[in-house]
Amino acid sequence: MRIPLVTEIQRFSLQDGPGIRTTIFLKGCPLHCPWCHNPETQDARQEFYYYPARCVGCGRCVAVCPAGTSRLVHHSDGRTRIELDRTNCQRCMRCVAACLTEARSIVGQRMSVEDILREALSDSAFYRNSGGGVTISGGEPLYFPEFTRQLAGELHAAGVHVAIETSCFPKNRETVESLLDVVDLFIVDLKSLDPRKHFEVIGWPLAPILANLEMLFAAGANVRIHIPLIPGFNDSPADFDAYVDYLGSRAESITGVDLLSFHSYGEGKYAFLGRSDSYQYSGVEEPPAEKTMPLARALKNKGLAVTVGGIVGIIDSKSELTDGDILEVHQ
Ligand code: SF4
Ligand code: SF4
What we know:
alpha/beta, TIM Barrel, Alpha-Beta Plaits, 2 domains, nine-stranded mixed beta sheet, two-stranded antiparallel ribbon, 11 helices, 13 strands, Organic_radical_activase, BssD/PflA/YjjW, Aldolase_TIM, metal-binding, 4Fe-4S
């Protein structure tokens, strides 16, 4: 069984399904969404953040690195800083252990199913009282199907509501099918309904994703759809029409649709991971509510429950919503 690293266990989360939840972020994803705001969950391997502001230029990391990735540079302002080239990094993490100021920190901890269960089940009382549970997220949980199945199964057996956040990418249907009896809620990220764009921009075909979705619908699974609204990628009238046609024709099988506007909060993490060059959305602004509302309204008119930005009923004087457009809560 392939065991993923865990980047974070987020307790008391209110965003990732109903009630109070614990969200488990697994590290590793086969898709390459260029807007990803959790870049630390893309690469399945361990890596480290480097925070220049915390670096005192002591050189301890330079001394222990077997790959010669770091060198001390004396600057005209009198400070000494590290210049870091990760090209030959062996991911040994000796530099992190050597750093006394926490200018370097490991991304991705090794945890067994038992470790995660111990932590997740400690909040069982909150789940019971709030109608919450545990959400397995990423990265992409289905990149580690046996692990995810085992974790979901143990949680389910303990009486915990289990949600999974996934792009439903697997090409073999059995991977998703195997979760039907242990997952209570599938939150499926549907990034585009244009096969060409999906493949060219994200690097993965759309067809298996739709086939898995259809399987979930046919099985009567509890499915929510997440649509990340990305400027210039999936926010044209043609994109909106495609979402409305597809999701509208399956409204009875879908618990709700969450429209999640692009934001660039993850940009700093690209820098701390040494991957600033790969971030293409620097300076791109979050779309205004007016841009999202036509899609929200059209989906609602098809009988779908819709949230915008994970917030209930975004209604302000600037939006064109009327009383009849009140949006619904995550269920
Ligand atoms: S993790 Fe990379 S940069 Fe750090 S000591 Fe090891 S090889 Fe050097
Ligand atoms: S060990 Fe830490 S504080 Fe010292 S030079 Fe390296 S990163 Fe900076």
